[in-house]
Amino acid sequence: VNLHRQWASVQPFGAPDQKTDFTPDRIAIEKLDGQVVAELSSPRESFTGHELETPWTPLQRAYFNGYALWNYLTAPFLMSLPGFTVDEIDPVTDRGETWRGLRVHYPSNIASHSRVEEFYFGSDHLVRRHDYRVDVAGGFATMHYTADLVEFDGIKVPTKRRAYRCDSAGRILPDELMVAIDLTDIRFS
């Protein structure tokens, strides 16, 4: 991911010699030499009418992976970028701890799960939970937990991420794990 503009790439994707190239306005699947295999402009529009069970194309999956990873790996620093607004909200008690909360309003030029998302921070000021609605899949509610902080190049990064779908009362559905990410080799350059 790029830390200063919304760009991400996942490699491999679909085949050992392929990668993705994500920006909010375009998603592509490319060969490692840059040859375009498939691409889609205005990819967000392709999700119109989607619900939780609607199947995704490889380009839609690549788009979701791109914006989600960029948001996950740049938070909370993304909140300082132009166009973001942040408000403090009531703390929550979760997993035996009380976490302070921020409601973040995303600008329209940044692809994200939803325009308004909430982040909760432990007493060490590190992100513990990220709540959002997945608009590209019908707007279902999600609680996304971070864990196992490891320091890379002087920055603490959560190396485990687990996102669960929530019921209508805002409680996690423990059998509905939607995202599981384990990170191991992180470098900042």
Query: What percent of residues are in strands?
Result: over 45%
Largest sheet features? 7 strands, antiparallel
> Which regions have little confidence, pLDDT < 50, spanning 5+ residues?
none
How many structural units, i.e. domains?
Answer: 2
Write a structural description:
The chain has 189 residues and is mostly beta strands. The strands form two sheets. Strands 4-5-6-7-8-9-10 form a seven-stranded antiparallel beta sheet, with no helix packed on it. It has a three-stranded antiparallel beta sheet with strand order 1-2-3, with helices on one face. It has two domains: 1-55; 75-182, outer membrane lipoprotein receptor (LolB), chain A, CATH 2.50.20. The model has no long low-confidence stretch (mean pLDDT 95). The longest helix is centred in the middle third of the chain and has 17 residues, at 58-74. It has one helix and ten strands, in the order βββαβββββββ. The chain starts with 17 loop residues before the first strand and ends in a 7-residue tail after the last strand. The chain has one helix at 58-74; strands spanning 18-23, 26-31, 36-41, 85-94, 97-105, 116-121, 127-134, 140-152, 155-166, 172-182.
